Amino acid sequence: MKIVIKKTYREISQAAASIVSDIVTQKPTAVLGLATGSTPLGMYEELIRLYREGRLDFSRTTTFNLDEYLGLAADHPQSYRRFMDENLFDHININKERTHVPDGSLSADRVDEHCEEYEAAIRRAGGIDLQVLGIGGNGHIAFNEPGSPLSSRTRLVALDEQTIKDNARFYDSEDEVPRFAISMGIGTILEAREIILIANGAKKAPVVAEAIEGEVTSRVPASALRMHSNVTVILDKEAASLLKDFPLLANQHIQ
Ligand code: PGA
């Protein structure tokens, strides 16, 4: 696991965007796994900037998002489809038909079939070249909450209390936060050929330290990334601050 520490959120966003940009440049048909949430917003801004400067072409890129709330139609203001359109897809030359976000508008009885089809679509596309991840305050990756099996696949999941509280900031009240979601599994994520995990801010420091330095356990889903051979964790100094090696790492990485 490679760890990169930068001083600011802007710098970690640029570092993450440069990894995405290298892949899309080297392989124009690259398959990207994308994440929502506050963390990757700066990376998306940077990718849009690179596209506008003529330095990136997404016309042949395929994307698969990690998750979507169940019960929200694609055009709901809080749906992750809408998030992706507004924060990335509408601003670059990607073919929307090659952008995939799980369908949160399905009735519960159709979800299993949809999940199987989502996994099949990833396989048909040749698998994910680069998966971008954030990390929840409870250690989740995608909506794989603590306790999710490390071998889990795309499926219907119940959100845990902390996730509902963390996400209430986007809704008028906590009651409005959906309780279920469709999420890629940890097993699905670990099949990506390369993974980057981005985290910023002191609030993430305890869980980042647990995920990177604690035991590999389904209690901290992000710890499963230690079983993968090509992971880069990109942290600002606040998110990195509780790592045991922080002073050494900070000296190496922050000029
Ligand atoms: P955040 O969420 O980027 O909004 O902090 C991360 C996550 O829950 O995976």
**Discrete helix count:** 9
Could you name the CATH topology?
Rossmann fold
On the 0 to 100 scale, the average pLDDT is 96
Number of strands: 10
Estimate the helix proportion, in percent: 25-40%
Largest sheet: 7 strands, parallel
CATH class label: Alpha Beta
Percent of sequence in beta strands: 15-25%
Distance between the termini: 22 Å
In the CATH hierarchy, what is the architecture at level 2? 3-Layer(aba) Sandwich
**pLDDT < 50 runs, ≥5 residues:** none
Order of helices and strands: EHEHEEHEHEEHEHEHEHH
Which distinct ligands sit in these coordinates? 2-phosphoglycolic acid
Search tags:
Rossmann fold, 255 residues, 9 helices, three-stranded antiparallel beta sheet, 10 strands, alpha/beta, single chain, binds 2-phosphoglycolic acid, seven-stranded parallel beta sheet
Q: Can you describe what's shown?
A:
- With 255 residues, the protein is an alpha/beta fold.
- The chain has one domain: Rossmann fold, CATH 3.40.50.
- The protein contains 9 helices and 10 strands.
- It is globular.
- 2-phosphoglycolic acid binds next to loops.
In short:
The chain has 255 residues and is of the alpha/beta class.
Topology:
Blueprint: E1 2-6, H1 9-26, E2 31-34, H2 41-52, E3 62-65, E4 67-69, H3 80-87, E5 99-100, H4 111-124, E6 130-133, E7 155-158, H5 161-167, E8 180-183, H6 186-190, E9 194-199, H7 205-213, E10 231-236, H8 237-240, H9 246-253
Parallel strand pairs: 1-10, 2-3, 2-6, 3-5, 6-9, 9-10
Antiparallel strand pairs: 4-8, 7-8
Helix pairs in contact: 1-2
The chain binds 2-phosphoglycolic acid.
2-phosphoglycolic acid binds at residues 37-39, 134-136.
